[in-house]
Structures are given as structure tokens and as C-alpha cells.
């Protein structure tokens, strides 16, 4: 799945509302169709897709990739800088510092110190506040302006990424802001379920899947470490400039060359500091996470496919997840319609470095044991020939493709999708997504559930209160289907 959501969005919808502030961080969660009727209608759009034809890219001599999605329907331009950074680059002693760096990105830089004239122009433009996000495999920064001011906004982004000053007073304030964000997240019970899943599913390198980090690393951080992160990852050959909206590609390419062309190329950070290899789970593990919640939240997790190693399985994962999400699916009828659970979702999160497959369900202490048995019974049937119909398969592919088209209608948000694909999958995967999605077959789905879900080691968790566990009396064995 490719939506920019926190992985525990569904969890907290059961136990409370999560409100990430500026500088949000987290994993992606399950994809759900927005306005599915409109999406389904758009799925029949002829290929090649109009906006896909407009997607243009060029790599400068220093390695900076410039990507433009042109649309002149409204006089707005969104500029985004995407950097291959995030928690997957962080050993424990650096965990959370990509996020802290993101908070410093739009603070004082050389342009402020020199009182560059364009800053006053931007102040008069009414440009929305710039923002950023930190994820596992991407840190992105973005701003939207009217067409008239976008060259000035582009200069602003250039000075922010190339010439930060890392003022000590600003740095001290931002550390407190980040710690405050951690406090807010930890006030939600869903945080602890998500943390327990990460720590078990990625047991050897959990920091690599935790974009928020922890108080200790944030509180001990220094501006020297910020400089180190900048020198290591904020280099042109590890960055993309993505521009969407009322801008012509050749104009963007020319301005990018003028502003970024002399940015010195550096050593590929992933040659000197390669990604870790998350080892397979040696066995299944179950646990009860005790939190003051009213109901029982069941969370099952598996290691899913990785981009670059099993691309075809990622398409099958998206399609199969979507089939199971639909109210008329056998999965939903067996679990929701029977009253065993009040809601259930299964999702796959696309990553280059081992994306997770997660099933989340809500039930009551009285029904928890029966719900678990029913969930595992359904999982065992995932490969049955009649588990879904040909019509459900084709409908899922069409609606997923249509949803992607629907989301392109607001390019100020779709720019984030392009950045995500660029960082975690690459543009070739992005360009081929629609076609490969439509080619997904029953055999592809069968291979996916066989290789990654049925009978595979996994993590089974249940979050509930102390009182609920006394009533439910769930065992670790039951939570892993034994």
C-alpha cells in the first residue's frame, strides 16, 4: 500500500484519535478507497493515462533527479524535496534524528542571515506554511505557492536544503517540540501495540522501523550530529526535486540546473552505510499488551515482500488486501457479519526493506477467543479456489487503479505519493504500477499468500485491559493460532 498514513491509524480509530502535528512521522497504514464510485469510474480511463504522459524527469550531472507532473488547471505549484533518509538509516544511537533534522529544515539558513530579497517577496505572497514528514525510507519537505511566486519558493527550498545554519537556540527549542510529539503519541494506547509489533516483527533492528525515535537520542542530539546527517544523506545524488502543477518541465529543469547544478555530488550513502537485512522470524510469537482500553484489539503481523526482491508479490498483496476489505468478501462476512468482530482489516505496506503485512481486528473480551479461531480459520482458506470470485478480483484491480487516478486530482497532495514511490520503489515501478496491477492473476495471489502468510512465522498480539484479560484469558499460543 502506498498511502502516507500512520500504520496504527486503524488501531487508534478504535481507541482514540491521533493528531500528528507538524513534522509528522510514522508508517503507512491500510489503503481504503476514497469515493470508490468515482474511483471505479475512473478505472476505465484509456491508457496511456494523461497525467502519466505528463510525468517528466531528468537527472542532473550531480545526480539530483528532477520530476515534474504538469497540470495547468489551477495556478498553483507544489515543490517537494524528497531525501532517501528516515528510520531505515538509523542504528539505535541515531534513532529519531532523521525526524529531528526534519524539524530543523525550515529554520534559519543562509538566506535569512543575508536577508535575501526573495524572502520578503515570499512573505507578501501568502504562501502556506511549508511542512515535512519523516517515514522509514523517506524524508520529504514541501510547499505550495501560486505560479507567480514558485521560482522564489524554489529558491527557498534550495537554501533550506543546502545552507542550514543549525542555530543552537532554535535547535534546543525543536528538541523540546519533538519530545512533545513523542509524549502525545505515547499517550495513546495504540502506540504501545504498534511498538510491540515492531519490536517483535523486526526483532534484530527495531530502530530501523521506528521513525519517531526516542527521548534519549533526541535529548542528547547535537548540531554536530545534524551536520553529519546533512553531509551523509542530504546530497544531490540521494535527493529528488518533485514539482507538480502549473509549471512546464523545461522551465523547471532549467531552474533546477541554475539553483542546484553546482551542488557537489557525494559518495552514495548506501554504499558506505548499507541497509540492514532484517532476518526472517525464527518462530511465531504471541503476547497480550495490557492497556486501558474497553475492547480487544487483535493485531497479527508477517514479513511481507520487499521491492527489488519480489515486486510481483507487492501487486498481489495490494489486490488481495483490497478484495478482503470489501464488505461482500467472504473474509468480512465470516468475521464482521457474524458479529465476532466489529471491524477487521488486512494490509500490506510497500517497502524496499521488508514491508509488513498486518491484520487488525476489534472484538470484545467475551468473543476474543472465538474471533481468533475464526480469523485463523479464514487465513487457512486464503488459497481456496472459491475464496473470492473472478468478479471480485477484477473489481479490486479496477477500483485500486481508479483510486490512484482519483488521488491525482489534487496534485498538492499527490506530490507526496510520487516522492514515496521514488524513494522506496523507483520511478519505473511507479510508471508500471497501473499495468502490473491489472495483470495480477489468481496464481500471483496464491504465490503471495503461500510465500508470506499461510503457515509462516508471525506475531500475534492482543491489546486489552487487565480486567479484560482476566475475562478473556487469552494465551500466547492462541494468539498465534495454536
Describe how the helices and strands are arranged.
Layout: H1 9-15, E1 24-25, H2 36-42, H3 50-54, E2 55-59, E3 65-70, E4 76-83, H4 97-104, H5 110-114, H6 117-125, E5 131-134, E6 139-146, H7 150-162, H8 168-186, H9 189-201, H10 215-220, H11 223-233, E7 239-245, H12 249-260, H13 269-272, E8 285-290, E9 296-303, H14 311-325, H15 330-337, E10 343-348, E11 356-363, H16 368-380, H17 390-407, H18 411-424, H19 427-439, H20 442-452, E12 459-464, H21 466-472, H22 476-479
Parallel strand pairs: 1-5, 3-7, 8-12
Antiparallel strand pairs: 2-3, 4-6, 4-7, 5-6, 9-11, 9-12, 10-11
Describe the structure.
With 482 residues, the protein is α+β, with helices and mostly antiparallel strands. It folds into 2 domains: 9-272, Cytochrome Bc1 Complex, Chain A, domain 1, CATH 3.30.830.10; 285-479, Cytochrome Bc1 Complex, Chain A, domain 1, CATH 3.30.830. The protein is 46% helix and 15% strand. It is built from 22 helices and 12 strands. It has helices at 9-15, 36-42, 50-54, 97-104, 110-114, 117-125, 150-162, 168-186, 189-201, 215-220, 223-233, 249-260, 269-272, 311-325, 330-337, 368-380, 390-407, 411-424, 427-439, 442-452, 466-472, 476-479, and strands spanning 24-25, 55-59, 65-70, 76-83, 131-134, 139-146, 239-245, 285-290, 296-303, 343-348, 356-363, 459-464. The strands form 2 sheets. The chain has a 7-stranded mixed beta sheet, with helices on both faces. The chain has a 5-stranded mixed beta sheet with strand order 8-12-9-11-10, with helices on both faces. The longest helix is centred in the middle third of the chain and has 19 residues, at 168-186. The radius of gyration is 23 Å and the shape is globular. The model is unreliable at 2-10, 14-23 and 26-53 (pLDDT under 50).
Amino acid at each position: 500500500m502506498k498511502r502516507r498514513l500512520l500504520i496504527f491509524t486503524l488501531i487508534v480509530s478504535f481507541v482514540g484519535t491521533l493528531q500528528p502535528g507538524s513534522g509528522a512521522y510514522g508508517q503507512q497504514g491500510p489503503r481504503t478507497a476514497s469515493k470508490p464510485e468515482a474511483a471505479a469510474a475512473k478505472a476505465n480511463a484509456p491508457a496511456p493515462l494523461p497525467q502519466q504522459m505528463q510525468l517528466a524527469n531528468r537527472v542532473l550531472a550531480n545526480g539530483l533527479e528532477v520530476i515534474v507532473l504538469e497540470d495547468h488547471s489551477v495556478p498553483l505549484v507544489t515543490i517537494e524535496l524528497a531525501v532517501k533518509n528516515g528510520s531505515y538509516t538509523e542504528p539505535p544511537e541515531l534513532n529519531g534524528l532523521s525526524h529531528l533534522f526534519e524539524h530543523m529544515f525550515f529554520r534559519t539558513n543562509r538566506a535569512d542571515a543575508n536577508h535575501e530579497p526573495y524572502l520578503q517577496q515570499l512573505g507578501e505572497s501568502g504562501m502556506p506554511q511549508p511542512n515535512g514528514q519523516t517515514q522509514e525510507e523517506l524524508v520529504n519537505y514541501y510547499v505550495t505557492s501560486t505560479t507567480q511566486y514558485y521560482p522564489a519558493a524554489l529558491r527557498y527550498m534550495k537554501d533550506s536544503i543546502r545552507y542550514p545554519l543549525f542555530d543552537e537556540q532554535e535547535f534546543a527549542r525543536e528538541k523540546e517540540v519533538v519530545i512533545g510529539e513523542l509524549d502525545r503519541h505515547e499517550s495513546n494506547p495504540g502506540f504501545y501495540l504498534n511498538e510491540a509489533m515492531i519490536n517483535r516483527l523486526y526483532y534484530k533492528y527495531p530502530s530501523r522501523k521506528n521513525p519517531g525515535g526516542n527521548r534519549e537520542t533526541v535529548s542528547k542530539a547535537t548540531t554536530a550530529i545534524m551536520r553529519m546527517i546533512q553531509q551523509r544523506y542530504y546530497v544531490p545524488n540521494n535527493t529528488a526535486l518533485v514539482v507538480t502543477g502549473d509549471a512546464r518541465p523545461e522551465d523547471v529543469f532549467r531552474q533546477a540546473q541554475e539553483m542546484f547544478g553546482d551542488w557537489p555530488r557525494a559518495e552514495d550513502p548506501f554504499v558506505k552505510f548499507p541497509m540492514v537485512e532484517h532476518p526472517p522470524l525464527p518462530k511465531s510469537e504471541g503476547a497480550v499488551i495490557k492497556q486501558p482500553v474497553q475492547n480487544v484489539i487483535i493485531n497479527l503481523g508477517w514479513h511481507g515482500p520487499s521491492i527489488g526482491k519480489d515486486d510481483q508479490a507487492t501487486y498481489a498483496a495490494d489486490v488481495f488486501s483490497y478484495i478482503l476489505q470489501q464488505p461482500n468478501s467472504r473474509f468480512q462476512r465470516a468475521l464482521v457479519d457474524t458479529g465476532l468482530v466489529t471491524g477487521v482489516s488486512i494490509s500490506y505496506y510497500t517497502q524496499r526493506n521488508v514491508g509488513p503485512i498486518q491484520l487488525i481486528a476489534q472484538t470484545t473480551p467475551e468473543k476474543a477467543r472465538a474471533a481468533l479461531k475464526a480469523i485463523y480459520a479464514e487465513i487457512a482458506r486464503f488459497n481456496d479456489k472459491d475464496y473470492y470470485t473472478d468478479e471480485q478480483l477484477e473489481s479490486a484491480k479496477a477500483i485500486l487503479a481508479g483510486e490512484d487516478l482519483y488521488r491525482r486530482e489534487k496534485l498538492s497532495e499527490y506530490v507526496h505519493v510520487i516522492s514515496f514511490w521514488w524513494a522506496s520503489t523507483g520511478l519505473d515501478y511507479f510508471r508500471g504500477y497501473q499495468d502490473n496491477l491489472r495483470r495480477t492473476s489468481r496464481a500471483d495471489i496464491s504465490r503471495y499468500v503461500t510465500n508470506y502468510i499461510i503457515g509462516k512465522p508471525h506475531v500475534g498480539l492482543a491489546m486489552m485491559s487487565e480486567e479484560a484479560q482476566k475475562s478473556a484469558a487469552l494465551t500466547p499460543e492462541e494468539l498465534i493460532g495454536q
